[in-house]
């Protein structure tokens, strides 16, 4: 009985990925604000309601790895080795993502199109800011949970806000580095250097708390 369920799950994931791929291509070709849901549905060969069943908002099709990012942050904090602080665990996560060539930290000609599409849409820029705030809340909650502190915890919120701000600066500067050099290794070095510096700053700011 498990096989039909697995098959349905695979089909659902394939449909979702097909919609996302079609949407991404259209967004890059025409700009996010100039593409309609009907055009995406036609390109993916599905109905309009099928699109909304998988993606409640059009911008969700662009930021389709959002939930994966949340899960990665939670896991880095909750599943860290004994003796590793939460701030250090997140710093190590950044290095691991780069070493694994994760799409979250992809600095390449392809990723430049992603950045240009965001910069060309006020809707996407607003959603990107909202996602950053939501990720900060995810990190703050995970930090407080691992420390056994009541939620909300102001020190966890401070740590999360500083960490996400540092990662945002590192991410954007790494993309600028690639745009200037066309050198992925140089962009990765920029990203990790800024993450390391930001993590050191957060550790100093949170000295004496359970988060460092």
UniProtKB/TrEMBL annotation:
UniProt keyword annotation of Glycoprotein present: no
DNA-binding region: 36-55
GO molecular function: DNA-binding transcription factor activity; transcription cis-regulatory region binding
Top-rank taxon, per record: Bacteria
Gene3D superfamilies for the chain: Homeodomain-like, Tetracycline Repressor, domain 2
Keywords for this protein: DNA-binding, Transcription, Transcription regulation
The keyword Lipid metabolism is annotated on this UniProt entry: no
HTH tetR-type domain: residues covered: 13-73
Name assigned to this protein: TetR family transcriptional regulator
């Amino acid at each position: 009985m498990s096989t039909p369920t697995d098959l349905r799950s695979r089909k659902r994931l394939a449909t979702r990925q097909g919609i996302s791929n079609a949407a991404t291509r259209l967004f890059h070709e025409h700009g996010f604000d100039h593409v309609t849901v009907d055009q995406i549905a036609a390109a993916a060969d599905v109905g309009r309601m099928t699109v909304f069943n998988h993606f409640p908002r059009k911008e969700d099709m662009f930021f389709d790895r959002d939930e994966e990012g949340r899960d990665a942050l939670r896991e880095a904090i909750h599943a860290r080795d004994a003796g590793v602080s939460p701030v250090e665990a997140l710093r190590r996560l950044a290095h691991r993502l780069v070493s694994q060539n994760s799409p979250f930290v992809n600095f390449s000609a392809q990723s430049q199109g992603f950045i240009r599409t965001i910069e060309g849409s006020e809707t996407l820029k607003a959603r990107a800011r909202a996602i950053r705030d939501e990720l900060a809340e995810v990190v703050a909650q995970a930090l407080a949970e691992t420390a056994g502190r009541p939620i909300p915890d102001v020190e966890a919120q401070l740590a999360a806000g500083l960490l996400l701000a540092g990662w945002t600066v590192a991410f954007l500067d790494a993309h600028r580095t690639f745009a200037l050099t066309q050198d992925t290794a140089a962009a990765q070095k920029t990203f990790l250097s800024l993450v390391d510096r930001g993590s050191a700053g957060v550790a100093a700011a949170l000295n004496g708390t359970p988060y460092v």
